[in-house]
Every structure is written in C-alpha cells, then in structure tokens.
Amino acid sequence: MRFLSRLINTSRLSRVLLIRILLFSGLFTVIITAIQLSLNHQKYTDELQQKSQELIELSTPSLTLALWDLMENSALVFSEGMMRSGYYKSILIKNETKKDIAFLGQIDKNADKQTFNLIAEVEKRPVIIGTIEYQIDTDQVKQKTIDEFIIILISQFIKTFFVSIFILFIIHKLVIRHLNDISNWLESFKPESSFSPLTLVADKDSSNEMVKLKSAISEMGQQVHKHTTGLEKIVTERTAELEKLAYTDSLTGVANRCAFLQVSNEELSRSRRLSYDVCVMMLDLDHFKVINDTYGHDAGDKVLKQVSEAMNNCLRKEDTLGRIGGEEFAIIAPGVDKGGMHKLASRLQQSIALLDFSFLPENKNITVSIGYTKVSNDEDFKEALKRADKYLYSAKNSGRNTFITDKGFVPSIVS
C-alpha cells in the first residue's frame, strides 16, 4: 500500500490509469455479475416451480381422498404441511362446488397463480372433485439472488482492485517510470546549458522499447545540445565578424571613420569625468594621388597597409588609430601633454620614412603631414578634429613632411 500511495501521489498518469482500470473492470464485473445472477434467478425460479409442482403431485391423492370423504380438516392439515415446505406464498383448496375448503398464506396480486385439479375415478370416469390454487414464494428467490449479488460484487471488487494494482505495477515498471524519467529530463533540459545525458539503468529489460526510446531521446538531446552550442558559437563568431566589418576599415584593419568617432566621443566623456587631457591628430600621406595615378591602386593599397601598420606600432594601447578617408588618418591620444604629442608626431614621421616600398620603382619613400591639437573642455570632438584638420592642411601648404599644432601648445616645427 505504501508503494501504491507513493505511485499515485507522484504520477498523474498512474492515478488516471488506476481509476480507469477500476472503472472499466468494475463496470465489466457488474455487467457479468448481473447476467449471471439473472440466469441464476431464472434457474432458482424454475427449480422452485418444479419442487412446488412435485409436492402438489405427491399431495394430490391424499387431498383427493380427503375431499371425497368430506374431511375438510384433513385437507387443511395437508395444506399446512405443504405451506411448511416454504415453496408457496398462498394455497387455496376448493371443492367441486367452488367452496373454499382451506386457505393459507397471502395472495400476491403481482404473482402468477397456478391451478391444479383434484380428480377422482367415479364408475371408471374421472371426475373433478376440487381444485388447488397456489402461488409460489419467489421472495426467497429474490432474497437469495440479492445476497449472492452482494457477495459476488464485494469479492469481485476486491479481486479487481488487487488485479488493477498488479497491472498498474507492471505498467509502471515497464512504461510509466520510463515516461517519468523522460518527462523530468525534458523539463530540465536546456540546449544552451551543459549537457547531462538521460540516465539509463542497465537491467534485464534494457532491450525493451522504452529503454530504447530513452536512449534515442538522450542521443537526440545531445545532438540538439551540440547543434545549439555550435550555432551559438557560429552566431558569436559571425557577430564579431560583423562588428569588425562595421567598425574596421577593410583595407588597413584600423578603425573606420564611424568607429573612430564613437571611440573618440567615449574617450572624451571619460576624460572630462576623470579630469585628464585628450589630444587628436590628423595625418595625410604626401603626394599619395601620384602613387595611385603612376603605379596603380594596388600599389597605393599596399602603401596604405604598410603605413597603417607602422603607425599602429608607434602607438600605446590606449591610443586609437582610424582611417578617416582615402589617405587621411586620425589618432586620439588620451592623457598626453604637448611634449608627448611632439614626440609622437616625430616618431610617426620617422617610422614612415624608414619603410621599404620595394614594389615602387627606385624604392620611393613616403612622407606624412600632420596636424594635432588638444581638445578643449568646452568643445565637442568634431570641432577639435576640424581644427586638427586645418593644421594638417597648413602643414601640407608649408611644404609637407611636417607637423603643426596650436601656437600656444607647441611652436610649429618643420622636419
């Protein structure tokens, strides 16, 4: 019973199955029992009729003699003896004039009445000298049938209950426990989380269909997990690639204009919050159009790549290099004073001047013009960038291969 209680409390399917097994088994039992008892009732009724008929036939000679000899008391005694048999509900004896000689019992208007003639031989001719009217007592048959119905119903219910529990136990062992394992595992299964396989118990039933189903579901879950994690990895990689494409210059690999402006605005906001200076620098390769026109765009692209790499190597980790346009670049340098910007500009020019462009005839050297400034506390980044760009063009107009900045920041220097 403890098993049944635990089973019903933990498994809704077990409860449903038990109730339905009991209902269908109970209904079937009631129908079969009712049919059987109906047959038994008819059998008992027929037996009662046969026994009552036999008793009437046995008593007929004595009753006939009593009526022939006009011994009414004897007829009454015989009637009482017949009533004591328990077969009859009522007995009525009449003589040939239809006069009641004896009446015992109680008339039942709903019961059938049987009539039997008392016949005597008079001068070798049969003569009716009286009749017996009787009703058999079917109440005992009904009561016996009801008693049997109650006994059979109780016994069948007990057998049905225990058989149902046994069937449920078998079904639980073969099916329900596996379904519960699958259901609980599926509820906790998350493809994106670490994978825990569905537990498979190795027993003598390890080859049945339910165990095979659990194994298949576990394997499917593992495949879904691998597929999901694979998709997540692909999505992450694709997202990183898209972000790189969105914010990186495809030729040089440095930040594009959009990314550079975004990083610069974020750096400017942080500098004002933490109170440190930010400088911006604009750079432009000298006579770059001549390289494209003379040697082709492939040569120009190689120059841009090498120059970008050289400039990146001159920067700190916190500095940001961006390609603003064709051959124009920009650098944002947080926390650098005027001396640091001067050294950075010199280092950039020297690094670019030392580059080897062997693919260009006569190892042509590349120079760069630079303009830089400090971002004021009361201006946005684009204003400072525009001012650095103005200094850049001043540097180009001053003969190129030079850098210019604010007069109050550092004097103009020509390399």
Automatic annotation (TrEMBL):
High-level lineage: Bacteria, Pseudomonadati, Pseudomonadota, Gammaproteobacteria, Alteromonadales
Transmembrane helix recorded as keyword: yes
This enzyme's EC code(s): 2.7.7.65
Chemical reaction(s) catalysed: 2 GTP = 3',3'-c-di-GMP + 2 diphosphate
PANTHER family in the record: DIGUANYLATE CYCLASE DGCM-RELATED, REGULATORY COMPONENTS OF SENSORY TRANSDUCTION SYSTEM
Needed co-factor(s): Mg(2+)
UniProt superkingdom: Bacteria
Domain GGDEF: 276-408
Keyword annotations: Membrane, Transmembrane, Transmembrane helix
One family name in Pfam for this protein: GGDEF
Keyword Signal belongs to the record: no
Transmembrane segments: 21-39, 149-171
Example of a GO MF term: diguanylate cyclase activity
This protein's name: diguanylate cyclase
InterPro entries reported for this sequence: Diguanylate_Cyclase, GGDEF_dom, Nucleotide_cyclase, Rev_trsase/Diguanyl_cyclase
